[in-house]
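Residues and backbone
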Amino acid sequence: MHSTETYPIGTPGQPWGEAEKKAWLDQQVVQRSFAEEVLTRLQDLPAGFTIEQYGALPIDPERYPLFAVRSEEWDPTKPNALVTGGVHGYETSGVQGALRFLSTEASRYTDRLNLLVLPAISPWGYETINRWNPEAVDPNRSFRADSPSAEAAAVIQLLEQMACEFLVHIDLHETTDTDNSEFRPALSARDGIDQGIWDIPDGFYLVGESACPAPAFQKAVIDTVGQVTHIAPADAGGRLIGEPLEQHGVINYAARELGLCMGLTDAPYRTTTEVYPDSPLVDAENCILAQVAAVTGALDFALKESGN
């Protein structure tokens, strides 16, 4: 485990320069196959969906294409739903949950809404099991104009080209033990600011948009996921990852201000999922099913409330 004071790259208290970022990049290695675990599964989608490439990562465009899955018959009279996964590539169930939703549940919604699913926004991060991109940039702090993240910028450009409004947006994430053992110490080293560590919640929780909290929507998603896996309890101070609890299993962030993917649209119903894959109470399959349940719970609530 790396501590925030002894991270092996850089000098404590001094932000990284280009030499330190290169040293960090040189340490990253491919640990799994994006082609085998993601791209091959996109070839077996059910009827009614089309796959479109919306970009590629500059570090290796052939190896890391960016694909969107959308309803084949895009009907402008129907509401639109956006599902994003793999913004943080290391968060496995975000990617695999989006793919599982497509293969098992998505077809039953296409008569009532248009679906846009971006299952693996950060494929280099998926292969290297990383939170950051190759430039040591966190894509999920980069969804803003002039984004420093190629991953985020490609998504922003796609949505600008589509020029449509969304009824619901659900962004699939995980909180893992490596947040404390690797990623927060790396953040401390990169920025020269001690981030400390946080208590990792044991269970599923949601992060709502503080500017549009939609508490009834968040509760509906929690209730649906609670049928599949356990919901994280608050800590002794009534918080999750340092944030005050809004309701059972839900905290709120200023997503747009922070450049989070969840803040990318003006969808009245939006949320970020957080699965805890290191819990002794779950396995990889349960984590995937929790993500699928979150998506279906979100879509069911949004459709009901909008009268569709």
User: Anything to note?
Assistant: The chain has one domain: 18-306. The chain has a mean pLDDT of 96. The beta strands are 49-56, 65-71, 80-85, 114-118, 168-174, 205-209, 239-240, 243-244, 250-253, 269-275.
